[in-house]
Amino acid sequence: LSTLLCVTLCAEDLKFPPGFRFGAASAAYQVEGAWNINDKGENIWDRFVHTKPEYITGAATGDVACDSYHLWERDIEIAKELGLHFYRFSIGWSRLLPTGFANYVSEDGKEYYNKLIDGLWAEGIEPVVTLYHWDLPQSLQDLGGWTNPLIVDWFGDYARIAYSLYADRVKLWLTINEPLTFCDANYNIGTLAPGIISPDHGAYLCNKYTLLAHAKGYRIYDEEFRPKYHGEVSLANHLTWFEPWTEDDEELAELAIQNCAGRYSHPIFSKEGGWPPSIEKLMTENSKKKGYLKSNFPAFTKEEIDFIKGTYDFYAMNHYTSRIIRKAKEGEELRPWPVGDAPDLDAVMGGLPDWEQTSSYWFFVFPPGIRRQLVWLKKNYGDMKFLIMENGYSGVEELNDQKRINFYESYLKELLLAIKEDGVNLTHYAAWTMLDNFEWMDGYSSKFGLYQVNFTDPNRTRTPRASAFYYKNIIKSHSLDV
Ligand code: BGP
Asked: What family does the Swiss-Prot or TrEMBL record give for this protein (predicted)?
């Protein structure tokens, strides 16, 4: 009845389902610092920031970042202050395995994550662990990184070691964070480490071997660890939502969604598996246009399709932004990815004038996108457990960050509608992020933190923003009615 009486959501509707869990997400390279401490191995971000500083705003590095390697206890205190139910962090592959390979486990790395996991549990906060958040050991990159099929085994070995050390206390695992972002930005235009430009080959090989590596990581857990520990595993996909510019662009918008969401979802979550047929067709046509004899989009064998299919226990989505999209006009010049348009689709993309532009060049605020994306996933891949594993707002330094509060309120409202009106089984929400941190190519110029971090202070003092109190109240009341 309340729904009928209310124009928008009413108090009752603003409640999250019992058992719904709130958290925050982070990534090793973005917060830990201590890049060369003890026996930690060099990773591709260490190498990238030290050799190609011109790629990063202010030539910033993650050498110290938030210094969470030393300040992990303060981080747990903050997670407790916020009342988080879970804290998502990633393991630094080369911190745990300095050579990148399984021949040698760092005692120091092992203990660091042990302390973090135990410290979180001591405060009743569940650790959620990502195995790979973009910091490949440099030793593996030197052998081709994600374009070398052997990465599937290297990742499998690393995953097995991480499970054997922590699966007794970690029940929720994400194998890989955002293949779309790191494959396309690593190997397409070279803006993320290792900064290799190979759009027609590197990016696609990375797509394929990332999916196979994820599947390997999933299957190892499933066969060797699940019987004892009963945890759950999936990967986290970055999904941008696409709206058609006009009715004529509906098919194109669907193709763009397939190219973003489908490329990393269809092989895992669809009944038939393999690449989305529309994307395979598009890539073949594009290869021909570019003069290749055959498609340079790497095909899967039947065995590979079966190996990847079904390797999930839930769908984890990172979502920030949306685009409107239209076909390029005859002779229209496309702005290069990722700032502008979509050459693969011969399409122009952007935000509408009333979509707020955040401090990140790629990020327009469009709250309905998050709900529409979830509904699309449910429609395409069926009913399952959905988790938001990243969502947040990039702004500036100010402590009174009303715009971030507005962002969280509007996106969370859409999630409540997805749960209540569309029947989406959404169980977790992770804010990106708890602390200002090293935001990849933006260095420290872009702030996503609920807590401000003073990066000029050797103690890396953390100070709550207004949004931290807002998020804390939401968690406490389990409702948006705060
Ligand atoms: C996600 C990444 C995060 C985080 C966030 C903000 O794609 O998983 O690691 O960085 O985006 O993005 P950016 O740092 O590019 O502004």
From this structure: Belongs to the glycosyl hydrolase 1 family.
The first and second tokens of residue 408, run together, are 């969280």
Tens digit of each residue's pLDDT (9 = 90 or more) over 173-206? 999 999 999 998 888 878 899 999 888 899 999 9
Q: Which atom of ligand 1 lies nearest, measured to the CA of 27?
A: 9
Class of residue 136 by CB neighbours under 10 A (exposed 0-12, middle 13-18, buried 19+): buried
- pLDDT, tens digit, for every residue of 53-93? 999 999 999 999 999 999 999 999 999 999 999 999 999 99
Q: Yes or no: say if 242 and 324 are a contact pair by the CB < 8 Å rule.
A: yes
Q: Which residues make Cβ contacts (< 8 Å) with residue 124, sequence separation at least 6? A: none
Q: How far is the CA of 442 from the centre of ligand 1 (A)?
A: 10
Residues designated catalytic: 178, 390
Any ligand 1 atom below 6 A from CB of 27: yes
Atom from ligand 1 closest to the CA of residue 360: 16
Distance CA 201, CA 186 (A): 12
Is the Cβ atom of 442 under 6 angstroms away from ligand 1?
Answer: yes
Report d(CA 159, CA 226) in Å as an integer.
13
Average pLDDT taken over every residue of the chain? 95
Answer yes or no: is the C-beta of 406 below 6 A from any ligand 1 atom: no
Q: What angle do CA 431, 241, 176 make, to 5 degrees?
A: 55
ipTM tops the 0.85 cut: yes
The CB of 440 under 6 Å from ligand 1? The reply is: yes
pTM of the model: 0.97
